Amino acid sequence: MIPGTAITDTVLYTSVVAPYCRTCHILRGTKNQDDLDFTSLAKFQGYADRIKAHVFDRGNMPLSRIPHTDFWNSPAPQMLASFIDAQSGGAHVATSASGAVLMPGRPIADPGPDRMVRTGANAVLTAENSLFASTFAWSQPMPSGNVTITNPNGMVAIFNASVAGTYAVRLTVNNGADFK
Question: What percent of the chain has a predicted confidence (pLDDT) above 90?
Fold first, then answer.
């Protein structure tokens, strides 16, 4: 069993890696390009964080259209999500209220790293690494009255705090589409 899941390594490898990943990644198993060689489960496990980004967030893996469609029409996404969640220790795969894995293409907010700024100084907030987003909204979840956010509906906003403290800022993104 893979720790934290009800999946055995053999089932994961034969149900997910072999049919949907290995076709392309086996080409990387030569000495010329062995950086992403998925010829064993151990090599696959080492890339759990990048697998989440490419399969569930960006949607650019599986790369070929037929394996991509077959993958999303099978039980493989749920199985892979369970594996990724058990490996990640925090960054979980997005699911619906019913627990179904969400397909890529939904807007994903990325407000960038935490920042430390002098009182009264401007800090640039950027959502440039957000995915599939066309509208942006910067806000303070618990308004303090000490913070000004200039251009709160832009991809780039300016944060300024008049009083020293620790403040949280929320980035909400959308693209006008409904997602399943």
Answer: 43
Rounded-to-integer distance, Cα 159 and Cα 152, Å = 9
Tokens of 176: 């006008």
CA angle centred on 127, ends 57 and 45, rounded to 5°: 30
Q: What is the pLDDT of residue 66?
A: 87
Residue matched to tokens 């990724």: 84
Instruction: Could you please state the CATH topology (level 3) that the domain comprising 105-180 is classified under.
Output: Immunoglobulin-like (2.60.40)
Contacts of 158 (CB under 8 A, 6+ apart): 122, 123, 124, 125, 148, 149, 150, 151
Amino acid letter at 76? A
